[in-house]
Design brief:
Helices cover 45% and strands 17% of the residues. It is α/β, with parallel strands linked by helices. Strands 9-8-7-6-10-11-12 form a seven-stranded mixed sheet. A five-stranded mixed sheet has the order 1-2-4-3-5. Strand 11, helix 10 and strand 12 form a beta-alpha-beta unit. The longest helix is centred in the C-terminal third of the chain and has 26 residues. The radius of gyration is 21 Å and the shape is globular.
């Protein structure tokens, strides 16, 4: 039997919107509006490399929607960045912000480059030139970038400084995810992971389970995956497998966060961690566990491997890790999936806190940030769970109903200009 080809990220995002539109009987005019991004920017990023040669990278910034407020979304540096992917993620950011009740629309951006092959000086040049190219389209009341794949607080510092130089005054609120010393917020670095683990705890509790008695598998050991390991372990869970781009490791007795992190820092990978068995990323996803956290890239759980997934619950810390076909299979198998627009929303929630603190010029303690994050996540999780139970639908569709309904109502109230 021929294998059905998986759809592109944008096709998946549009398919999800169509599914919700049909379910809630969305006004066709609003549906049509929401299918299209407000703004698409494609820019050239010419850089003089350390060897004196000129290389031209391609950068993207897509602003999907601003009906609920300025657009918000990350910037990623990756060799596979494409317009299709960025458009999809901008749309997902719109839904993520809406389901969390944040005063934002969605955006996303990136530069098609391999940061692992660039020096620090070349990375700074790429960041500053890309920021310069998109400067007319971003700002605290327009569009607020943040870190994403292979970008970090230093990247945001360069972006903020570049925008500020063009503005002739400091503008810390133009980006979030900055270092604390220049207006960042406590709790931002671990926010995505903290929100994901908290969401998993909430949905486990709704189902009469306890994370303290659970086994956890984490795919991806970047910022979100590593912090998810740390936080899940601190909550009493047993993390039995983790992976990075090179390999995975597993130990049914549990993997210690401090030891694994130190080993990866020293060797560059979790592969060959003492006392653990090496495993492929594909096999890691199929391990039996109470909680599976995909925290790597998109399209990791597909129609091909979904029948072999043995997790009790999946919490998507990555963007779009589960295809639409896989989501249907998992729902039929009664494996609930906390969708990315909920499970990975901790980062944008604390980004909103950072933006608000910058605008006020008043900063909260780490405890205040954590408490506020838990409050926002708790309200969103409860709303999605209630819709799921009421309509007897999967968690993804329930989350999208909440999100799309909120954006649609904002679009209806604002109308179409002129």
């Amino acid at each position: 039997m021929n294998k059905t080809p998986e759809c592109t990220p944008l096709q998946l995002a549009l398919c999800q919107l169509d599914r919700v539109a049909k379910k809630i009987k969305l006004d066709p005019c609003i549906h049509e509006k929401l299918k299209h991004p407000k703004t698409i920017l494609i820019v050239s990023v010419p850089i003089k490399m350390d060897n004196g040669k000129l290389e031209v990278f391609t950068g993207y910034r897509v602003q999907h929607n601003i009906d609920r407020g300025p657009s918000k979304g990350g910037i990623r540096f990756h060799p596979d960045v494409s317009l299709d992917e960025v458009q999809a993620m901008a749309m997902w950011m719109t839904w993520k912000c809406a389901v969390m009740g944040l005063p934002y629309g969605g955006a996303k951006g990136g530069v098609c480059c391999d940061p692992k092959k660039l020096s620090d000086r070349e990375l700074e040049k790429v960041t500053r030139r890309f920021t310069t190219e998109i400067t007319p389209f971003i700002g605290p009341r327009k569009d607020i970038p943040a870190p994403d794949v292979y970008t970090n607080p230093q990247t945001m510092a360069w972006m903020m400084d570049t925008f500020s130089m063009h503005s002739a005054h400091a503008v810390p609120s133009v980006v979030t995810g900055k270092p604390l010393e220049i207006g960042g917020s406590y709790g931002r670095n671990e926010a995505t992971a903290r929100g994901c683990v908290f969401a998993a705890e909430e949905f486990m509790r709704f189902r009469g389970k306890d994370i303290r008695e659970s086994t956890v598998v984490i795919q991806g050991y970047g910022n979100a995956g590593a912090f998810a390991h740390k936080i899940a372990q601190a909550e009493g869970a047993k993390v039995i497998a983790v992976s990075d781009s090179k390999a995975g490791i597993t130990n049914p007795e549990g993997l210690d966060y401090e030891a694994v992190s130190a080993f990866k820092e020293e060797t560059g990978s979790v592969k060959n961690f003492p006392g653990a068995k090496n495993i492929t990323n594909r096999k890691l996803l199929e391990l039996e566990c109470d909680l599976l956290i995909p925290a790597a890239l998109g399209n990791q759980i597909t129609a091909e491997n979904a029948p072999r997934i043995r997790a009790g619950l999946i919490a998507e810390a990555a963007n779009g890790p589960t295809t639409e076909e896989a989501n249907i299979i998992l729902h039929r198998r009664k494996i609930p999936v906390i969708p990315d627009i909920v499970a990975s929303a901790g980062g944008v929630v604390v980004s909103c806190f950072e933006w608000a603190q910058n605008l006020m010029g008043y900063f909260w303690t780490a405890e205040e940030v954590s408490t506020r994050l838990n409050d926002v996540m708790s309200l969103a999780c409860r709303r999605v769970w209630d819709i799921s139970r009421e309509k007897k639908i999967d968690l993804r569709l329930a989350a999208y109903i909440v999100a799309v309904s909120r954006v649609a109502e904002a679009a209806r109230l604002r109308g179409i200009y002129p």
